[in-house]
Amino acid sequence: IGLELYVATDRHSRAGVKERFGHLTLLARDRTGYKNLVKLSTRAYLEGYYYKPRADWELLEEHHEGLIVLTGCMSGRASRLLGEGDEEAALAEVQRLVALFGAENVFVELQDSGLPEQRELLPKLARLAERAGLRTVATNDVHYLRHDDAYAHDALLCIQTQSNLGDEDRMRFGSDEFYFKTADEM
Known about the structure:
It is a single chain. By secondary structure, this protein is an alpha/beta fold. Helix content is about 40%, strand content about 15%. The chain is built from 6 helices and 6 strands, in the order ββαβαβααβαβα. The protein has helices spanning about 30-50, 55-60, 75-85, 85-100, 115-130, 150-160; strands at about 1-5, 20-30, 55, 65-70, 105-110, 135-140. It has a 6-stranded mixed β-sheet with strand order 3-1-2-4-5-6. The two termini are about 20 Å apart.
């Protein structure tokens, strides 16, 4: 059981509407971890809700026991820092996670959903894991169940954003690989 958590600098802050939250994926390792997932989710909604439910490092410090943490997708802080060319800041970010959760509970997350920017990031993430002495884990960003559901998902995005499939500048996913892949596909 897990949770993709938005992590803000300060969950109480309402400044900076354009603040980009970093994603972390948290997985319950045991019953304590499950209880901490529930507490983090609840407090992110009740105390940190501003466009999205947000936690911060203070909450993570209070509720980190029993959790496994993945560094997140391309919207995770480490990935974004690598994408910006700041390898040292990305290393500091994962070292902060290690200090809190323990090296045995931190994994550098690797994703390949067919996006060029993800493929460019993969070797950087592998180097980051090696430098930090961490293991990697391959995951897939899942938004629909089957590959055949990509078109329906695209239509749903149009409905949600009040746009049309033919609109050039509408929100869209960059590939049709955001489905639940088999072990062989992974």
